[in-house]
Amino acid sequence: MERGGTALLLWLGLAGVAVARAETVEIFAAGSLRGVVGELAKEAAVSYNIDVKPTFGGSGSLRERIEKGESPDLFMSADIGSPRKLQMQGRTTVPAIPFARNRICIVSPRSAGITAANLVDRLLTRNARLKTSTPIVDPAGDYAWAIFDRIDTLRPGSGAILKEKAQVTMGITATPNTREQSPTAALFAAKQIDIAVTYCSASTALEKEAPELTSLVVPPKLDPHPLYGMAVLSNKPPAQRLALLLLSEKGQAIIASQGLVPLTESGPSRP
């Protein structure tokens, strides 16, 4: 009887170990989704016993890594185009899924006095040093280029001028003053840039780092309407649970808490 009881306890213990072993889901995600993925990972661990293994980078670069053979379970992109490309290549298990929006902000020193009314003039000022992400590699750069193209329709020839300005600053760097200082804040602190075109979800953190900076949401007539998309690349049930979690009310609340815009919300107001 004692021996049987010991065997039962041993079996229950082994079963407990099996239940406790988390299932791993590998995610490739845009750098602007660090906060979202972090909170998603916490929720997945508690609710589904899923261990999220993230890799962050530019969406275009991550898509290319997948095309060359790497195989994450989910790809969370800052655009919908990259997931759709993977879908067209037959790499996804379901069609590309939109899951969030973002907005584009113009960040500059408060002393510059940039407003919606004078934005185009200030961007085109001869000595204004303009910083964007790199197009194709990072959708933030593509969204900036789309804004320049819209400006070009208002002032023919200005689009090329703005793109040239941005290309001049793409390779510059500045040493952060602290470990917490972001590269963009470091560039402003070093007086190497005057204006940055970035996601509004990132601009709040920039203003906290450097209170002398302020952000302006891109006016509606210039808005490129950033739409984030997801590619489900695996049939693993945990990966599919994570995808559904992201689309659920809880997942959309996580998106809102990190400064992005849930799919259920719209409008030009700042997040």
Spatially, the strands of the biggest sheet line up as: 2-1-3-9-4
Radius of gyration, CA atoms, in whole angstroms: 22 Å
Average predicted confidence as pLDDT? 90
The CATH superfamily of the largest domain turns out to be Periplasmic binding protein-like II
Q: Which stretches are low in confidence, meaning pLDDT under 50 for 5 or more residues running?
A: 5-12, 14-18, 267-271
Order of helices and strands: HEHEHEHEEHEHHHEHEEHH
CATH level-3 fold name of the largest domain: D-Maltodextrin-Binding Protein, domain 2
Tally of distinct domains: 2
- CATH architecture name of the largest domain: 3-Layer(aba) Sandwich
Q: Give a quick account of the main beta sheet: strands, pairing sense, barrel closure.
A: 5 strands, mixed
Number of helices: 11
CATH class term of the largest domain: Alpha Beta
How many strands in all? 9
Distance between the termini: 65 Å
